[in-house]
Write a structure and sequence with these properties.
single chain, 12 helices, disordered C terminus
Amino acid sequence: MTSRASDTVGAFAGWTTRRWLRAGVAGTLVVLAVLGSLGGWAMWRASQITDLLVEQRSPALIESIRVQEALVNQETGIRGYILTGRQDFLRPYTQGLADEKAALARLRPDLDGDRRALADLAEVEKRADTWQDRLARPVSAASPEQAGRIATARAAEAKAAFDALRASLTRQQARLTDERALATRDLHRAVTLRNWMFAVIAAVIVLVAMLVFEGLRRGVTGPLNRLGSAAREVAQGGFDRSLTGTGPADLRQLAGDVDSMRLRLVEELRFSEAARSLVDEQAEDLKRSNAELEQFAYVASHDLQEPLRKVSSFTQLLQRRYGGQLDDRADQYIAFAVDGANRMQSLINDLLAFSRVGRVHNEQRTVDLAEVLRATLDDLGIGIEESGAEITHDELPTVLGDRTQLGMLWQNLLSNAVKFRSPDRPPRIHIGAESDGGTWEFTVTDNGIGIAEEFREKVFILFQRLHTKDAYPGTGIGLAMCKKVVEFHGGTITIDPEQQPGTRVVFTLPVLAAAPAAPDREALT
């Protein structure tokens, strides 16, 4: 017996949630179908008895009473005619005949199928015909004198016939009354049965709903809540918390899968902790190396200034004093030396400015970009005027940053836009600003010669030049410095690949709280 029970429990233990739900729904539907059938039968039974009572038993009794009234009217009319001899006393008799005929016509269908009631009706009709044959018809057809003699001669016989008719009507009405009372009792019992049946159905539905709710709580929501609680503990750092599943087989399988994932995460966490320690060490080494490189670049560029100034000064002095006194090749060599010294001076100055970003200039304060832009345009005024450039901008916000670095950002971006202009058209440059949640997105758009797609990432690398120094002068540090300034302020900078013609540089900066962002175009030349 114990082994059989264990086998049964083991069989149910393999059921999934879907199988339990299917079994529960199927059982519920069977119970509801049976109860619905019983409730339908109870309603049908009550309806049948109601129809019998309303359409047959009550109308039959009423029509029987009407037949009796019609016969009494006939007897009254005949008696009045006999006593008075006046024809107008026969009107109740005539009307009674018509009423009797109509009532009998309505009564017969109501008694269809009831042999005893039909037998009673046949007896009533027979007694009525006997009375009419022996008295009513002869008297109504005779003259007043003859009617009196007929009534006198047949008085006893007519009285006996009408008394028998009345007794037949009484028996018929008594039987119809009993049948109506029986139908009424049957209706009360059927209604009571129907009400109890629906009460039982309602109780069973409530019980089924409670069982379904309890089954879902124990078999689905309870195990899921326990699993979710355990999973949240793991998510909050309790990786040593084992996940054990309960309930249907698929929920236990789910708990096992989640626990396997937990074990995998524990292993991954151990590996990531080791890797993080290694990365932290490497990051610290890289940070120290970068700091040393920045210091080296600063020291190197700073220390190169003095000997380079001497080289530049003496080569320029040599050019002024001996220019034209030597041969052409010597003048060319001197020019090369002067140009190289000047370019070296420019390169060292740019490298020194690059190394100072985030190290020397690091005053974090609110900066009005529109004011910084106006100062930058003043500095670039001669180049802008000579090139005929038109520069427009949206209303620029106030941001948190270093004013000097942001000025360098505008200067490099605008000078590049003016320098790399198209020879076919005057420069048109627009600075856009748009707020996107917690970020300002700025665009510097020009109609110049543009940047080829394959160079849109390389232009931000230090000392990367796309043109010769003869075509466009420069050191190749400008956009690299822009990238360093933007990233130092927590933003990003890219080249828009869809801008044609010209170039659109897109960079972002964090938004200050309650910073205005209403766009407005203002032309500056």
